[in-house]
Amino acid sequence: MKLFTKICAIVSIACAATGTLAQQAEDQPQSYTYATYYVCDVTRQGRADEIVEADMAPVYDAAVEDGTISAWGWLVHRTGGMWRRAQFYTASSIDALFAAEEAISAELQENDSGSDEEFGRICNTHEDYIWMGLASSAGNQPGSPRGEVGLSAYYVCEYSKQARADEIVRTVLAPIYDAHVGEGMFSSWGWQGHFVGGEYRRLGTVTADDFPTLLETRNLIIAATADNELAAEFNEICGSHADYLWDIRLETP
User: Fold this and answer.
1) 12, 35, 38, 252 — which has fewest CB within 10 A?
2) 29 preceded by a cis bond (ω within 30 of 0)
3) Cβ contact 104:60 at 8 Å
4) Is residue 72 within 8 Å of residue 251, measured between CB atoms?
C-alpha cells in the first residue's frame, strides 16, 4: 500500500526515548521517528480511521512485537491547523528506521485490499518529517505509560541557535516538566529535533489522560517559567510555533 510508506506522527505525541535531557549527551538522539501529517476531507476522515485500523494496525502491531520498530501510532485532530491526521513509527537508529519502512511497506503491499486508493482520495495531501528524539520525561522508555490525548508544539527556530535552545530545555525546562509528570498531571513529555522535513525545527510534546488535565498542567508550566530569563531566551530563539491537540486513537505499545 503506497500510502502507508508515508508514515505519520505525533505527537506525539509522542515518541519513545530514555531518560531526561539532563541525563543525556547533548548531541546523541535517543530514537528516530518517521512522521506524516495528513490533510483530509473532514466529511470522510472517519472512513480513513477505519482503513488504518483494519488494514494497517495489524501490520504495525506485528512490527512492534518482532522488534522491527519500537512504537507506532495514529493521531486524530482535535484542535490546531490544517493537519487532520498524523501517523508515526519509531526506531532506535536512522538505519533501523529505513529498514523498517522497507519491510513494513512490503507487508502492506502484499496485504493490499484496495483501500490504499480510497485512503488517498480522503487524505490526499501530506507533509513528512523525520524527528530525532532528544529528550523525554524521566524513565519514559518504549512501552512506558502515556496519556490518551496530547499537545504538540511545532517550533520555527533560528538554525544557528537551535542547539542553545536544546541546552535551555536540558538545563532549565526538563526539571520543571519532570516535576509535572504524575497522577493528575502530564503522563509524559518529549523534545525532538528536525532531521528531515519542512520548516519546523523542533517538536515539543506532552500527553495526559484527558484534555482538561493536559491544559491545566500546561498552564502551571507557563506560570512556572513566566519570569525565567533563560525561558525568555528560548522563546527568542524559537519565536514562532503551531500548536495541535490530538486524540491518540491508536498506539502500540
Assistant:
1) 252
2) no
3) yes
4) yes
What integer best gives the mean pLDDT of the chain?
A: 88
- Counting the structural domains of the chain, the total is 1
Distance (Å, rounded) from C-alpha 152 to C-alpha 13? 6
Task: Identify whether the C-beta of residue 9 lies closer than 8 Å to the C-beta of residue 196.
Answer: no
What pLDDT, in 10s, does the model give residues 146-157?
899 999 999 999
CATH of the domain at 189: 3.30.70.100
User: In angstroms, rounded to a whole number, what is the distance separating the alpha carbons of residues 241 and 36?
Assistant: 18
The answer to whether residue 101 scores a pLDDT higher than 80 is yes
Distance between start and end Cα atoms, the chain: 23
pLDDT at 7: 34
User: What pTM was computed for the model?
Assistant: 0.87
Residue 182 Rama label (left phi>0; alpha psi -120 to 50; beta): left
C-alpha cell at 142: 518504549
3-state helix, strand and coil shares in percent for the chain, rounded to the nearest 5: 40, 30, 30
Q: Which domain holds residue 74?
A: 2-252
What is the Cα–Cα distance from 157 to 178, expressed in whole angstroms? Answer: 24
Contact 129, 200 (CB under 8 A): yes
Rounded CA-CA distance 22/19 in Å is: 8
Helix/strand/coil for 249: strand
